[in-house]
Design brief:
The structure is a single chain. With 200 residues, the protein is mostly helical. The protein contains 7 helices and no strands. The protein has one domain. The radius of gyration is 17 Å and the shape is globular. It starts with a helix and ends with a helix. The C terminus is likely disordered.
Length: 200
């Protein structure tokens, strides 16, 4: 199972990218640079259910598998910060899946459905940034997996910038895709490191 973790992370990335590109190309007027990803799974949009399952739910569950195994494979002495970080990263994976289960209502952005989707998005961002930062602090302070600690810290900072600062600079479409790219890229790297750590 541990040997399959990199495959799980890459599969999650492929499903997400292929779904965003494919469903976006099939939706008239949709712009990858201008429109948020969640519009493809919004209520009333053609093939929204399929998009939500393929782009959010399945990748989220695969990432949850990686986060769970990462926690189990933490080095001895990783400490409280590292374990807290992996727990939050598990929540971020489940938050991604929740975005697919709680679709946006584009006709009313103040509706309960839209607010729930926004809550899932914000939960995904906060748990991703907080979890990555906590994991980086834990691994770095214990001088364990230093390279993973540095890359995890950089991912936390990049995700924070992409989610909260870049939308006003490059637009929500580009900024959101950069945030997802950082998140999926980090999970793929962490899955590979976890797999290597499992080898005798």
């Amino acid at each position: 199972m541990r040997a399959l973790l990199p495959l799980a992370a890459i599969t999650a990335l492929i499903f997400f990218v292929a779904s965003v590109w494919g469903f976006g190309a099939a939706l008239p007027g949709y712009s990858q640079a201008l429109h948020p990803v969640s519009l493809l799974g919004a209520t009333g949009v053609p093939r929204a259910l399929a998009f939500n399952l393929l782009a959010y739910v399945l990748p989220g569950l695969l990432a949850a598998l990686v986060a769970t195994e990462l926690r189990a494979r933490l080095p001895a002495g990783a400490g409280w910060w590292s374990r807290l970080g992996t727990q939050f990263l598990l929540l971020s994976a489940l938050g991604l899946a929740a975005m697919g289960l709680l679709p946006l209502d584009p006709r009313d952005l103040e509706s309960d459905a839209s607010r729930l989707h926004g809550t899932a998005w914000m939960g995904w961002v906060i748990s991703s940034v907080g979890g990555s930062a906590a994991l980086a602090i834990g691994l770095g302070s214990a001088r364990l997996a230093i390279r993973l600690a540095w890359i995890t810290g950089a991912a936390a900072l990049a995700l924070l910038v992409a989610a909260f600062l870049l939308p006003g600079v490059v637009g929500v479409g580009v900024a959101q895709r950069l945030a997802f790219a950082v998140w999926f890229g980090w999970f793929a790297y962490a899955a590979r490191r976890t797999s290597l750590a499992a080898r005798p």
